[in-house]
Write a structure and sequence with these properties.
It is built from 15 helices and twelve strands. By secondary structure, it is an alpha/beta fold. The longest helix is centred in the N-terminal third of the chain and has 16 residues. The N and C termini lie far apart (57 Å). 45% of the residues are buried.
């Protein structure tokens, strides 16, 4: 039995039930009596987290989202907002540019808006290590780990990115691929893309697959346009690749479009595997085989950790959410001459590079 069940049985909205639970006055006597009667009949005891939140100041929970086009973050954010909405809590969302220093921004935000807590969707560990000590409210970093940074008010929820990338390489190897490129992110182990790169590289070595970072890896931002451009640079250097692991679904979307725009197909010319399992991966053409993160678990664990931190001093916790392989349509059997034929058909190979 939860607040939604009470709302349905009483015939009122969740927000009205939340106001009754938290003793707010802006509810009619009729609604209050009906809701309390349903709660009593069902033996419902209000969530102590909700009661605690209402005893706090009316300032919002601040959510900082890195980038404006990360579909994974969109899926997680929707769930986070729903959880806090059910508690009658305001959530203030700020989208930051990919290259922004999210911690410095949050420090300024804390000084002017006085949020009761903070959630960071994405972030670079270097920035947290350097300046997070100036943030005093309970906080949670999502999709990157804060483990080892030593801040008692900073928990984190992520997947094991190295293991997930290695699992993707295992999948491509099982499909017969022996020349595999990697697309996206940076080489920095402080960033998610860097750890995925390390996990993929370790798996390639374990399988005895030849891989050169200088030749078979192309960094790029986590956007469709960046993936569109980066795939050309990668294939120009390594025309013998039969598969590419894109370190984000959005990168895979752009790379697939680039292949089709040059007269090729996926997986006919080149197999492309994504990472994140965003909702759109099930509706793209082709549907993308991808490493799927459990976005509901990422959101729910993050909210739960934040609520725990808001109840009083607590030790920071760092949790791992599950992942799996979503097998769809973008990975097929190796075509050892697919990319070379695509380049040859273009006549001017620099068209692909651009």
């Amino acid at each position: 039995m939860n607040i939604r069940d009470i709302a349905e049985r009483a015939g009122y909205g969740v927000s009205t039930v939340s106001r009754v639970i938290n003793g707010q006055s802006n509810v009619s006597d009729q609604a209050r009596e009906r809701i309390l009667a349903v709660m009593d009949a069902c033996g419902y005891e209000p969530n102590t987290n909700a009661r605690y939140l209402k005893m706090r100041s009316p300032s919002p929970v601040a959510v900082f989202v890195m980038g404006t086009s990360n579909r994974l973050f969109g899926d997680i954010l929707t769930r986070i907002q729903a959880r806090f909405w059910a508690l009658g809590e305001e959530v203030a969302v700020t989208h930051l540019e990919d290259d922004a220093n999210e911690v410095q921004f949050a420090i300024g935000y804390q000084q002017t808006r006085h949020p009761k807590a903070m959630l960071f969707l994405g972030g670079e560990r270097t920035y947290f290590r350097e300046a997070f000590g100036q943030i005093t409210v309970p906080s949670v970093l999502i999709t990157n780990t804060a483990e080892g940074l030593g801040f008692e008010n900073l928990s984190s929820v992520t997947i094991d990115n190295e293991a997930a990338a290695a699992r993707a390489i295992d999948y491509l190897h099982a499909a017969g691929h022996r020349r595999i490129g990697i697309l996206g992110g940076t080489r920095s182990p402080e960033q998610i893309g860097g750890r995925r790169l390390e996990g993929a590289e370790s798996a390639l070595m374990a399988h005895g697959i030849v891989f050169s970072r200088d030749q078979d890896y192309e960094p790029c931002d986590f956007t469709e346009e960046a993936g569109y451009r980066a795939i050309g640079r990668l294939l120009w250097r390594s025309p013998d690749l039969t598969a590419v692991l894109a370190l984000g679904d959005v990168i895979a979307f752009g790379a697939i479009r680039a292949i089709y725009d040059r007269g090729g197909s996926v997986p006919g010319t080149l197999s492309i595997m994504g990472f994140d399992g965003t909702a759109l991966s099930r509706y793209s053409v082709p549907r993308i085989t991808t490493v799927r993160q459990d976005t509901d678990a990422l959101a729910d664990h993050s909210v739960d950790l934040l609520l725990q931190g808001m109840q009083g001093p607590a030790q920071a916790l760092h949790e791992l959410a599950p992942f799996d392989i979503l097998e769809q349509e973008s990975v097929g059997a190796p075509n050892t001459s697919g990319v070379a034929n695509l380049l040859a058909a273009a006549h001017d190979t620099h068209r692909l590079h651009r």
